[in-house]
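Figure 2 data, in text form.
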Amino acid sequence: MVDRRLLVTYAGGFIGPLAGNTILALVGSLKDAFSVGAGEIFLSIPVYMIPFVIFQLFSGTISDSLGRKTVAASGFLIYAVGSVLCGWAPDLAFFLGGRFVQGLGFAFVTPVLHAIVGDFTTDERRGVSMGIFGAVTAGAVATGPLIAGYMDLIDWRLTFYLIAGLAVLVFLAIQVAFRGSDEERGGARPIGKISIREVVTNPCVIAVCVAGFLTFFAFIAVISFTADALSESPFGYDAPTIGLVLFSGGIGGVFVSPLAGYLVDKVGRFRTGAVGFVFTSLGMLMFYFSNGFWDFILSMVVVGVAASAVWASLLTLTVEIVPERRGAVASLFNSSRFLGYALSPVLFLGIYDSLGVHPIYLIAGLLSLAGVAIMAVMKNLLAKRA
C-alpha cells in the first residue's frame, strides 16, 4: 500500500507546476483584458521564474530544520494567495504582482516535495517513487495549458481561481497526512546552526546540479525555438498543431517515467541516466533531420521519453548524495535546473535569429552527450567516497 504522505506529495507535485506555463494558452485573453501587447504579457514568465529560482536556494535547507510539513504547507498557501491575486487582477501591474507571489510560493514547494519523496522511500524503491513524481510533474506541465484553454472559454480568471482552490486542498491534505508522523527527518540541527557548506562544496552535488542545468537548458531551447520555427515557412503550422507536437513529448514522458524509475532501481542510477542522455542527444539530432509533422512528433516523443530516464536518475541521486541534508541538495538542484530553463531562450536567441533553428539542435545534442560524462564523473566520485 502506498504511504498516504507520498500520495499527498504526488498530488502536490501535480498541482504545483500548473501555473507555470498556463499563461501560454491565455495570451490572447490577457492582452484584451489589460489592453497590452504580447511582450508585456510574456513579462509574467520571468516575473514568475525569478523568485521561483532564487528562493528555492533556501527553502529545502529551511525544511531540513523546520520540517517538511511546515515549509511545504506554507508554500502552498502563498501559492494559493498569488493565484487569487492573478485571478482578481484589475490591471497588468497587479497581475504581475500575483505572478511574483505565485513563483515565491512555488519555490517553497518544489524542493521540499522532492525531499519528502526521498525521506519516505527506501533505497530499493526510491527510483520508482521518483519516476512517479517525475510523471505527475510532467503531466502538470503538459496539461496546464489544456486546462487553461478550456477555462478560457468561460473566463480566463477561472484558471487561477481553480489553481488556488487546488492549492488550498493540498494544504489541508498535508495537515492530515503528516499529522503525528516523523516528518522532521533531517532537521536535528537548530536553524541558526545550519551549515550548507558541506553541500555547496560537495563535488557530487555540483555535478548533479550541472547535469540538471544542462538538461533543461538544452530541452527548453529545442522546444521553444521549434515551436516558433513550425509557425513560419515552410511549415506554417497553426497553434493547435504546434501544441500537439509539444504535448506529444510531455505525454510520452508521463507514461514512461515510472518505468524509468524502475530501471533506476534495477539497472542503476548512473547507467539509466547515461542511457537517457544518449537517447536525448539522439532525439535532438532527429529534430535536425525532421521535415514534416510526424517527423517532429517522433523526435519529440524520443526526447520526452529519454528525458524521463534522465530526470528519474538525477532526482534519485539528488536525495542520496548527502542524505542528512537532502533538503538543501534538492534546493540547489532544482534552482540550478530551472535556472537553465529561464536562461535558455535568452542565450539561444542570437543563434536562432542569425542561423535558424538547426544549429540549436546540434548544440543541444552535444550538451546532452556531456551529461554522459557527468554521470561517469559522479559515479567515480561516489565510488571513491565509499
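Caption note: Confidence is low (pLDDT under 50) at residues 182-194.
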